[in-house]
Amino acid sequence: MDVRFSDSPTDLVTWIAADPGFMQRASHALVVGGGTWLIDPVDAPAVRDHLAAMPPVVGVIQLLDRHNRDCVLLADHFGVPLHRLPTDAIPNTPFQVISVRSSRRWTERALWWADRRCLVVAEMLGTASYFRAPGQRVGVHPFARFSPPQVLRGFAALHLLMGHGDSVHDPDAGAMADAAIAHARSSSARWAWSVVTGSVRRTDRARPILTR
Q1: In terms of C-beta density within 10 A (0-12 exposed, 13-18 middle, 19 or more buried), how is residue 196 classed?
Q2: 196-201-202-207 Cα dihedral, nearest 10 degrees
Q3: Which of 103, 163, 168, 179 is disulfide-compatible with 173, CB 3.0–4.6 A?
Q4: Residue 208: inside a domain, yes or no?
Q5: Domain span including residue 119
């Protein structure tokens, strides 16, 4: 598996899996104190090389029911606990756990790291092109446009890490998330037209799916 590392602070590392290309599957490594936490990770030799230069991995967190990815593999490799769909505070972390959706087909959590003003969202928000209407940098998942995640509004994030697409490191990151949610319904026609007309990049174009 090939990956590329997204531009990011050294304590908020993001990498994007090359396969399948349109999904832009993103994984994250967050440095907290003297340890590194992996979020919905995809494994690759380059990932392990990168992690070897970071503080030791102390845990793996799976935020979406469909994001099994390599969570178990990497938790076993590093001999650390896997926190799958946590509902309470995760021991020895500053993360606030947010319940985004709980249903038979879609269970998702998010993390808010207040000190770093970092919001980690597994699926509801993304920067992959099939999330975004024209003019948007951040968009709502196609299947959630008519029931957008209001619980993710109001965070004054400087850093927005998502499960599909590059992370956003910007003073307006929280405002971008708020706008994507607020206009999810009204921008749906523009989003659909961009897919129909092919204005999204060919490598990203795909039928909206429940992603992994």
Answers
A1: exposed
A2: -50
A3: 168
A4: no
A5: 3-199
Name the token pair of 2: 């090939």
The CB density around residue 126, as the number of other CB atoms within 10 Å, is: 27
In a domain, 13, yes or no: yes
- Residue 205 in any domain: the answer is no
Instruction: Establish if 204 belongs to a structural domain.
Output: no
**Amino acid, res. 59:** G
Sign for the pseudo-dihedral over CA of 97, 100, 102, 104: negative
Digit-coded pLDDT (tens) for 103-160: 989 999 999 999 999 999 999 999 998 888 888 899 999 998 899 999 999 999 999 9
Length, in residues, of the chain: 212
In this predicted model, what pLDDT tens digit does every residue of 140-150 receive, in sequence order? 999 988 999 99
**Tokens (6 digits) for 148:** 């957008």
Beta-carbon contacts of residue 167 (< 8 Å; ≥ 6 apart): 6, 8, 12, 14, 26, 28, 127, 159, 160, 161
